[in-house]
Amino acid sequence: MMLDLQSSGSHSVDGNWRALGKLLIYCSGCTKGGLFNSIHVPGHFVYRTRFSRTSGKSFLLPQCRTDVLYVSDPCEHLDQGEEGDIGFFRGIFKSFATSKVRKMLIKREAQLHPTEACPYCKAKLWSMLQAKMVPASASCRLGAYEDAIEYYVCLNGHVLGICTLLPLSDSEEASDHSDA
Question: Domain of life of the organism in this record (predicted)?
Fold first, then answer.
């Protein structure tokens, strides 16, 4: 995992180190009636996680692309009933307190979630979907349906989200099996 969060001291990580450690190794899942409504997937430690700054750019509107966001690959949870295959992803902003995303959320008067809090640091959450700040490039990056991605950012810059994953085509499944 390549994650440069200090960069000569010119950037800071918001929140605390315990929250960051948990974010790096833990998929928060969700409970019925929580952030992601009807789905219940228990939280769990992940075997391996990759965070990418390049992927993070896909989650930012063009006017916010100078912000630095590290985003994980989706943690896949297959065959979730009507929802199909879903993926959870998480991330962290560098210097969220001074980010363009935070300024835009405030300017758009985005509402904080009334009851749910960040599973990593317990701070209040903004819905990027409600603020109309989820670019189409995010679903492409995740391999998800275009209108089936939702994510939140907390006051400390932790990101958590969910998407409905596109099914693999027969040719992709065949190439996966031939590599084994």
Answer: Eukaryota
39: number of CA atoms within 13 Å, CB side? Answer: 24
Q: List, for the chain, all residue ranges whose pLDDT scores fall below the cut of 50.
A: 1-14, 170-180
Q: Could you give the CA distance from residue 88 to residue 36 in angstroms, rounded to a whole number? A: 11
Domain map (residue ranges) of the chain: 12-179
Report the chain's C-alpha Rg in angstroms.
16
Give bridge partners of residue 90 from the DSSP assignment: 160
Q: Which amino acid is at 115?
A: T
Record the pTM: 0.80
Check residue 13 and give its pLDDT: 46
Q: Give a three-class secondary structure readout of the chain.
A: CCCCCCHHHCCCCCCCHHHHHHHHHEECCECCCECCECCCECCEECCCCCEEHHHHHCCCCHHHCCCCEEEECCEEECCCHHHCCEEEEEEEECCHHHCHHHHHHHHCCCCEEEEEECCCCCCEEEECCCCCCCCHHHHHHHCEEEEEEEEEEECCCEEEEEEEECCCCHHHHHHHHHHC
